Amino acid sequence: MATLQDRRSTPQPQLDPRERDRLERAVTVPRSRVVLGAVVGLALVLWSADGAQFDFLKLGEGAANVGEFVTRLFPPDFTKLSLIVALLVETLQMAIVGTVLGAGLSLLMAFGAASTIAPTWLYYPCRWAMNIIRSLPDLVIALMFVSAVGLGPFAGILAMTVGSIGSIGKIFAEAMESVDRGPIVAMEAVGASKRQVVQYGILPQALPMLTSYTLLLFEGNVRGATILGLVGAGGIGLELTTAMNRYEYGHLGAMVLCIVVLVTIIDQASAIIRKKLT
Amino acid sequence: MSIIAKATPITATPLPVGPSLARPAPPRIHIRDLTVRYTPDTPVVLDGIDLDLHAGETVALLGSSGSGKSTLMKSLTGFAPITSGTVHVGEVDVARVRPRQLRALRAEVGQVFQQFNLIGRLSVLTNVLAGSLHRAGPLNALGTFRGADRRRALELLDRVGIAHKASDAARTLSGGQQQRVAIARALMQDPTVILADEPVASLDPRMSRVVLDLLRSISRDEGIPVLVSLHVLPLAMDHSDRVVGLRDGRVVVEGRTADLDAEGLATVYENDDEEVED
């Protein structure tokens, strides 16, 4: 039987004197677990570098070749500028459609993968599906769609869309899980349905994060779209490969410069929008 | 001697607060011998609570943290399990409400929270309209509300003196303004009763009085009983018709505010050396 007296006479928890001494010192000795963690981390990196044949000497020797390759790109040859612009526009269009479809489907998947929204029977299958998609390399997904719908940007769009579900779907779900519970409680308290709780309690709070992640997805898709062309999935990637195979380094340099300009513009615009949202 | 043994017997006499209450009406909230225990192996949170709330009265609920105030309020809306006893909200027997009937029950009870629980990015008007979600039609999925509800929401914003902020985002309002919006949202439900769980704990003294004045005037003018939990005794004395004091899940003080003095109410928070039964 508990008594108020018992509760009142319970001694107040005290800070361990040794811990107090440690906290009072201007320069503290790291805890043993921090030191152990650092040693284990360093050992892991060294083991990985050895296994991956990471070699600074080799990098130094190869730096000259990198420099030579870069110098070949200059001066850029802009004689095929109209082709480059057309392919960049196609790349951009692929990224726009891929992002819209990817973000839309990711949002639907995220509703199922958010523990605060979905029932358990839906939550785990959605999470597993996203894990499986995320584990597939984008180029493999692109090759699958190239074999399904043939060469061209449509295959690239499908690859980006599916790839987005794996990456951004998980982030969308976690953004919805992390919103303040207060408005959700308020919506439940007024007798709102599950759909209404999501629509008025969760989505308005998560919207800035969802928009921000969608813009990041778009930036990634623009860069990704230039790679997908390597396997024939449309965009400027195929022309990049062709130029390299034909040793048309001036043309290659012009394409690289144009890609840099496009990606920089998109990154800057996206950063401005994201800053306004958050 | 146990303080519980000294508790004033519970009397639930309707208060003669207005001409519309000339004839005694059944209580809006009727609680008898309510016991709440969240799980079988955890202590009893509420133990044998009897309480009636009548139209037009404001009842202040006092008690230390952990005394069971919030649980008592939650038990009225199905957010806390009723282990034994009866709880009626209007005609509804809360203990017999099935999960799919919970929305209708919650729509009957307006709730005001300590942290306001508004959706900060949405407009003040939309936050108030959220109180009508339980009766919103299918078009509400598109984010629309009926014209009649919009007019009613604006009237309520006039009522709480904040209609000029109707288009502003809720997050741009001060704490006192946000709490008035939350009260308007509760009124939008056309509630049987309003529960206010520490509604002024986040507000300064002046704004606390404004909000409590508003709640009491709503209670008197609209005939909606208000159960408000408070920690500040002078506020409870000035802004309630009746006081109920909880301690360790039991009612230890109950009576008309005019009949109680601050010293008597202070016993709710007083530590004594007597044993208190678990």
UniProtKB/TrEMBL annotation, chain A:
<keyword id="KW-0812">Transmembrane</keyword>
<keyword id="KW-1003">Cell membrane</keyword>
<keyword id="KW-0472">Membrane</keyword>
<keyword id="KW-0813">Transport</keyword>
<dbReference type="GO" id="GO:0005886">
    <property type="term" value="C:plasma membrane"/>
</dbReference>
<comment type="similarity">
    <text>Belongs to the binding-protein-dependent transport system permease family.</text>
</comment>
<feature type="transmembrane region" description="Helical">
    <location>
        <begin position="136"/>
        <end position="160"/>
    </location>
</feature>
<feature type="region of interest" description="Disordered">
    <location>
        <begin position="1"/>
        <end position="20"/>
    </location>
</feature>
<feature type="transmembrane region" description="Helical">
    <location>
        <begin position="249"/>
        <end position="266"/>
    </location>
</feature>
<feature type="transmembrane region" description="Helical">
    <location>
        <begin position="225"/>
        <end position="243"/>
    </location>
</feature>
<protein>
    <submittedName>
        <fullName>Phosphonate ABC transporter, permease protein PhnE</fullName>
    </submittedName>
</protein>
<dbReference type="GO" id="GO:0015416">
    <property type="term" value="F:ABC-type phosphonate transporter activity"/>
</dbReference>
<feature type="domain" description="ABC transmembrane type-1">
    <location>
        <begin position="88"/>
        <end position="270"/>
    </location>
</feature>
<dbReference type="InterPro" id="IPR000515">
    <property type="entry name" value="MetI-like"/>
</dbReference>
<feature type="transmembrane region" description="Helical">
    <location>
        <begin position="107"/>
        <end position="124"/>
    </location>
</feature>
<dbReference type="Pfam" id="PF00528">
    <property type="entry name" value="BPD_transp_1"/>
</dbReference>
<dbReference type="InterPro" id="IPR005769">
    <property type="entry name" value="PhnE/PtxC"/>
</dbReference>
<feature type="transmembrane region" description="Helical">
    <location>
        <begin position="197"/>
        <end position="218"/>
    </location>
</feature>
<dbReference type="InterPro" id="IPR035906">
    <property type="entry name" value="MetI-like_sf"/>
</dbReference>
<keyword id="KW-1133">Transmembrane helix</keyword>
From TrEMBL, chain B:
<dbReference type="GO" id="GO:0015416">
    <property type="term" value="F:ABC-type phosphonate transporter activity"/>
</dbReference>
<dbReference type="InterPro" id="IPR017871">
    <property type="entry name" value="ABC_transporter-like_CS"/>
</dbReference>
<keyword id="KW-0067">ATP-binding</keyword>
<protein>
    <submittedName>
        <fullName>Phosphonate ABC transporter ATP-binding protein</fullName>
    </submittedName>
</protein>
<keyword id="KW-0472">Membrane</keyword>
<keyword id="KW-1278">Translocase</keyword>
<dbReference type="InterPro" id="IPR003593">
    <property type="entry name" value="AAA+_ATPase"/>
</dbReference>
<dbReference type="Pfam" id="PF00005">
    <property type="entry name" value="ABC_tran"/>
</dbReference>
<dbReference type="GO" id="GO:0016887">
    <property type="term" value="F:ATP hydrolysis activity"/>
</dbReference>
<dbReference type="InterPro" id="IPR027417">
    <property type="entry name" value="P-loop_NTPase"/>
</dbReference>
<dbReference type="GO" id="GO:0005524">
    <property type="term" value="F:ATP binding"/>
</dbReference>
<keyword id="KW-0547">Nucleotide-binding</keyword>
<dbReference type="InterPro" id="IPR050086">
    <property type="entry name" value="MetN_ABC_transporter-like"/>
</dbReference>
<feature type="domain" description="ABC transporter">
    <location>
        <begin position="29"/>
        <end position="273"/>
    </location>
</feature>
<keyword id="KW-0813">Transport</keyword>
<dbReference type="InterPro" id="IPR012693">
    <property type="entry name" value="ABC_transpr_PhnC"/>
</dbReference>
<dbReference type="InterPro" id="IPR003439">
    <property type="entry name" value="ABC_transporter-like_ATP-bd"/>
</dbReference>
<keyword id="KW-1003">Cell membrane</keyword>
<dbReference type="GO" id="GO:0016020">
    <property type="term" value="C:membrane"/>
</dbReference>
